[in-house]
Structures are given as structure tokens and as C-alpha cells.
Design goal:
By secondary structure, this protein is α/β, with parallel strands linked by helices. It is about 45% helix and about 15% strand. Pfam families: adh_short_C2.
């Protein structure tokens, strides 16, 4: 590998599996020291295997990103171990859907707490550290193609991801004088373990056999198939590296051509 992230400390939220795990693997291969924030009490088997492979460059911290005290404590622990954070991969998120007239307050509160509040305050903590330490760092927020448009069954989730894109633009403008870059990635349909949950919800409300929605959305992608977590990892490495030093306030679509902007 090219070691594009050599000696950088990257903090990744929601990285116990799926996209976050794939990005962690890519960052480690590129030479970074990595801290994972995840709500799970213990690291997944995949993360534990990575920790055994990189015992001096990977740390796992339980953190509920909806709790500001846990974010503060998590950053203190992360920076005590690996030094100031230079890269943030801001990925923690949850998904839910329902017909618009059945969307509940509980679902609204839960989605916005994790996908918007959590993302914003993890970003704020990372940016505050970068400013304090005069680190010309990079923040990468995970949006979604759902943030580019509305969907009849996915109103709350789409709104949260639109907020991610907006916060990315505002933070980029605020941090530009400090030389800190803030960008986003908007994945399309990515084949992660979460898709079993997504597929089951669509099956319920669209009266489809299990697995049918997943098949349909893959075929609807212009390239003809669902993406893999590694497809996001490549973009995440690029945006974290010095190769993207003149890119900020952008949200990159990594979606097989589903959204054209």
C-alpha cells in the first residue's frame, strides 16, 4: 500500500461492522492509527481480529454518540492513547421506515438523535480538537443517496441524511480558515449486514417476499449491482489523504450512477 495515512490518528464512529469496518481496514493498511467508537459494549469478532493484527494501532471504545458526555470522554481516551485526531470518519447511523401517515414520534426521535445529533457533536468534538492542536485535518461525514431525494416510505431517514449534507457544507465553510477540510460521502445501495433489516421492512410495507427488494434495488443501479463496503473505503481513503487537499464542502456520490449531480 502507499501509506497515504501514515502517522495519522483516524477516529471512526459506527465501525463495528459494515462500511465502518471496511474503512477501518483500509485506513490501517494505509498506515493510520485508528480508534473505533461504537455503541456495542464489546468489539465484534471482525474488529477483535483486526486488533490482534494491529495491536499498537487499533483501539475500540464503547460510545453512544447521542450522549455528549460519552463523546467527550471517548475523545479524551482516544487522544490519550494515539494523540490528536487528524481524520474523522463520521459513520454511526441507524435506519427505519414506515408509511408517512404512520411515522411515529419515537422513530423520529431515535433517527435524529443518532444520525443528526450524534453526527454533529462527534464532528464538533473532532473539529475543536483539530483547531486546538492546529491540525489541518479531514472530516468525512456519511450521508446517503437518500439525502439527495425524498422517498415515500423513508421520510425520517431521508431528512436525517439531507441534514448530514447540509452540516457538511456549513462546517466546511466554518473550518476553511483553519485549513481543515470537511466532506461527505453519499453511498448508494451497499450490501452490508444492515440490509437484512432494510429488506424486511420493505417486505412488510410493500408486500414483497424477503430478498425481493434487495434484488430490485441492485438491478436498478445503472452499473447493475449493489456496491460493497470496500467501494466506500476507497473514497474514504482518498478524502482523508493529502491527495484531496483542495477538496472541501463536497459530498461525493459513491452509488454506481444512481444519483447524477
Amino acid at each position: 500500500m502507499s501509506q497515504r495515512l501514515l502517522d495519522k490518528h483516524a477516529l471512526l464512529s459506527g465501525a463495528n461492522g459494515g462500511i465502518g469496518l471496511a474503512v477501518t481496514q483500509a485506513y490501517l493498511k494505509e498506515g493510520a492509527r485508528c480508534t473505533i467508537f461504537d455503541v456495542a459494549a464489546t468489539a465484534s469478532q471482525d474488529v477483535q481480529q483486526l486488533m490482534a493484527q494491529y495491536p499498537n494501532r487499533l483501539n475500540y471504545i464503547q460510545c453512544d454518540v447521542t450522549q455528549l458526555a460519552q463523546i467527550e470522554a471517548g475523545f479524551a481516551a482516544a487522544e490519550s492513547k494515539f494523540g490528536p485526531v487528524g481524520v474523522l470518519f463520521n459513520n454511526a447511523a441507524i435506519f427505519d421506515l414506515a408509511p408517512l401517515l404512520e411515522c411515529s414520534e419515537a422513530s423520529f426521535d431515535r433517527l435524529f438523535a443518532v444520525n443528526v445529533k450524534g453526527l454533529f457533536f462527534v464532528m464538533q468534538a473532532a473539529l475543536a480538537s483539530m483547531v486546538k492542536n492546529k491540525t489541518r485535518g479531514s472530516v468525512i461525514n456519511l450521508a446517503s443517496q437518500a439525502g439527495r431525494r425524498g422517498e415515500a416510505l423513508v421520510a425520517h431517514y431521508c431528512a436525517t441524511k439531507a441534514a448530514v449534507i447540509s452540516y457538511t457544507q456549513s462546517a466546511a465553510l466554518a473550518m476553511a480558515p483553519h485549513g481543515i477540510r470537511v466532506n461527505g460521502i453519499a453511498p448508494g445501495v451497499i450490501d452490508t449486514p444492515m440490509w437484512a433489516h432494510v429488506d424486511s421492512l420493505f417486505a412488510k410495507y410493500e408486500h414483497l417476499p424477503l430478498g425481493e427488494k434487495k434484488k430490485q434495488v441492485g438491478l436498478a443501479v445503472p452499473l447493475g449491482y449493489m456496491g460493497a463496503p470496500a467501494d466506500i473505503a476507497g473514497a474514504a481513503v482518498f478524502l482523508a489523504s493529502d491527495e484531496a487537499s483542495y477538496i472541501t464542502a463536497q459530498t461525493l456520490n459513491v452509488d454506481g450512477g444512481s444519483v447524477m449531480s
